[in-house]
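Quality-control log, excerpt.
Job 1 of 2 completed; input and output follow.
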Amino acid sequence: MPSLIDLRRRIRAVKNTQQITKAMKMVAASKLRRAQERIVNARPYAVQMQRVLSSVATRVDPSIHPLLIVRERGPESKTLVVVVTADKGLCGSFNTNVIKAAGAFIAQTTEQCRLGLVGRKGRDFFGRRGFAVMFEQIGIFQKLRYQDAQTIAQLAIDAFTSGDADRVMLTYNEFKSVMSQRVVVDQLLPIARAEIDDTSMTATAAERGERLRPAPSEQSRGAASGGGAPRAGDEAAPAERDRGAGAPGVNNVDYLYEPSAQEIFNQLLPRYIEVQIYRALLESNAAFFAAQMTAMDTATKNSAEMIADLTLYMNKVRQAAITREIIEVVSGAEAL
């Protein structure tokens, strides 16, 4: 049974730890607010840019730019997996989840994988286990800047265009809310081409055909008045229906490029890669502070429960010691 001095010392240590976790929770909450504002402001631009460029990429020849070329995949193919983790711990399963997702992707694919590691925790984990590392970026989350995303994007683009990687995957934690984060494994290069929805196109064409087709009552009146001869409007109706049935859907539109498509893609596609990586860094940064705040809040509550249990146990030990001393005094008095 521990002595009262040991129990008091342990309670004092837990209280000190509780103060640290409470302070870390408040700091994480303060940083989370700023990080959340940054990702909320950046996310619409990144999402819309991805939607537009994916749509444009479906309507041009992939050979117009090297970042659009889809290479054949096989056992000899090479994949660069960019893994975004944090530089620090004390954030629950934040780093573990993204490392597990990257490890599962590497285990499932038959291609040769090399890693681009962003964050100290990912570097430490994969570096100790002998994975092939192409590049690493450490300490960028202390003061996250767009230039950091540009550096990582340039490394990924150089690896893809030089043939060191046939595709580039990006793995990071997406910020959903304070209580939840979602691990994302997304293809960064080559740029994904949007798929045109043939079902919506067929439905749209059918609706147009229905609108162009005259009502049955109008057909009967036209046949009775004209002796069965079609009117000028009726002659045009089949042609209009044919054009409506074969008309492309809303998504199947083409663009006019000014200046040329080559010059536009030379400027936009590298910027697109930079924006997507910058978004991933912002998402991971906000998710880290949310996970850290949640973990520190849980640690603070657990320390309070531990202090209560230790205090109760200390009181029981003290009561037992007092009872034992009283029994000794009474036994000594009876002996006299």
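Job 2 of 2 completed; input and output follow.
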Amino acid sequence: MIDISIIVPAYNAEKYLKACLESLINQTKKDIEIIAINDGSEDNTLDILNEYKNNYPNLIKVISQENQGLSVTRNVGIKNSTGKYVMFVDSDDEIYSELLEKLWNKTQEYPFDIVAFDVDLIYPDKTLTIKSGINENIQSLNKNDRNAYFTDMYCMACNKIYKREIFDDDNMLFVPNTWFEDVLFLHKLIPNLNSVGYIDYSGYKYYQRENSITYTYSDKLIDINNVMENILEYYKQNKFYNEYEAELEYMYVRYMFATYIKRLAKSKNKKKFNEGIEFAKKKVNEKFPDYKENKYLKSGGKAFYIKHFNKFFANIIYILEKSKMN
């Protein structure tokens, strides 16, 4: 019986793929499977995957498909998984050797819906540890517990394991052709969680590279508004909206005024940046005109920035981001 399925989408990943796979096959935890999906790569990714499959035929499954993007590829991995729990690892990242054993041991204390862990951000000259934002074990979640995940949870799919049965609901699968797919997935997951576990262990090596999606500009950034709208619609359709309206309002405003603006600041086109400021203000005021009264904007530096967001504050972000790029 497979305990944990590790899903590894791979697209043109030849440079980092071997290190990723080595970190998986060298786990101290046994009874795992690695499902590696070649997503239409144009380099030697498929050859590397087949080499590892031949060397570890009882451990690694390889699937190859035409390029369909990260969300579809993860879903393919989910559909082909047989583990009690599912985990996602990006093909240019790695995990520490004891991670899966620690996670599995936590699930043996209680069959949590998810178990979260911390993340190491690996820069060329330093390593920073990011806390998961889920910092305790809760066997029966209440509304206040879930509220905290809107404000505190590190919105990354790869720093958690999930009960396989969560994905029996098609609404929990990743939405194709979407940037910020982790944000969409995790916010749809929150109201459906009954229990969460946490291990105080930084188990994931999240490499910060110059060409990383997280740290580069793209016109697809506009997707952030589509993702916000998708989340709001999901909550309305499933009768969660009224219960979580304050949290959803805060989420929407924070992502538009903070995440979107920070990423937009990486554009070399100042006119496009200024247009983005107006776009964010327009969308927020259309959707939540009274957002300044939100209970999560009462105190703190981030709350002050969001509550008083304007072109001056946005340009400070622009300058700071440009200084990092020089």
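Post-run check on job 2. The longest helix spans residues 245-264.
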